[in-house]
Amino acid sequence: MPTKQQLCNMKRYLKLLFAASIITLFNACETDVYDPEKIENTKDLVAPADFDWKTTQSLTYSITSKVNTVISVYTDRNCTDESLLIENFALKANEATEIPVNIPAYVTSIFVQYPTTDGQDVLEIKTNEAATRGNNKSVILPADKEIDKFLWNTHYHYPSKTSRGTLMFEDLYPSKGDYDFNDFVIGYNAEVFYSQIRNAEILFNDGFKMSFQIRAIGGTTPYRPAIRLKGFAMKNIEGAKIEFHTTREGISMELLKKGRGANDDVIFVINGTESLRSGGYYNTDPEKPIDKDMPVVTCEVTKDNFGFGNYDISLQYALLAEELPRYFDFFIQNQDNLNEIHFKGFTPTGLGKQSPGTEFCSEENLVWGIAVPEEIAHPAERNDILNVYKGFEKWVTSGGQNNSNWYGQKPIGPVISLK
Asked: Which residues form the DUF4842 domain (predicted)?
């Protein structure tokens, strides 16, 4: 039979156990209590008015070399093709040269590869060393090997030489949709090349190559994808060799020519994507077969701009290469009424009846298109992107200041992975 002391200890233990149970139960209930401030849908977010929705940053670096040399720029110290941004950029001895670079917003360094007498070396440059109004100091490249002949084109790659970025659309503009951003999902890669230095014995071509992979279609409205090079005129491709390629019969790419004048913007459209839906959606329903052999369409433009008479045209290709993000106006067009949906910062092409001043953002500064510089898994049908990528909400509400690599985080909701 328990002693009096043992009974007291048992009572004390039971009281502690009861108190712990109450606290645990309270915490569990508190977690489940409705939080009126918790946002569960993207459509309820309010983004800062000056938020541009960009996941990349455009920086300019001033670099000086003591010798004539040629450099390539990467986002990875190992200088892999997957991180190659700029290939064969010529530097003249003792001249500060400004080099525009477009990199993911979360990247904090670029890596400049250059030839040396012993082979090659790499210089790391921090993003805070980029040239600005308050900092025009040039970075000194410790190159020691003279490159007296420059026999290559300069190539700019977006998002890199061998990777694809992802373009995602909602298609109910101007209404707010379910924000799964899978109504049209496109993978993209672009390469623009030009001649920095003209060699009298060798003719270099200017041009570009752009490829688009149709990754998903989660909308039923008859939209078709298109790309406008805003500010890059038709006259710049007059006489150029233009080639189109496709990996899927019935899906093609073409240059819009009818009614386009010499000073009108270059526009390419992608046709035949409606065949992928087969009466339903394409690559958005995890319960249905997923097509990982997604069609890719490509356009290649090459133009001989050799000679002083073509200098102005050649300069346009150089600007296109170095500043492609401000030209790159990818959009979707409703084939019934010609209405368009663009990324924030771009306006309608004029092909339809939309007002030239139409802005593709809501009063809350929400958008209908998002571009990321990596290939990512898109949300499955009717899964709000806010509930799929944990960092998305803070990225939006902070105006891009926080969680700039939200798309690199592991998804916490249903997605369609196409790798």
From this structure: 208-407
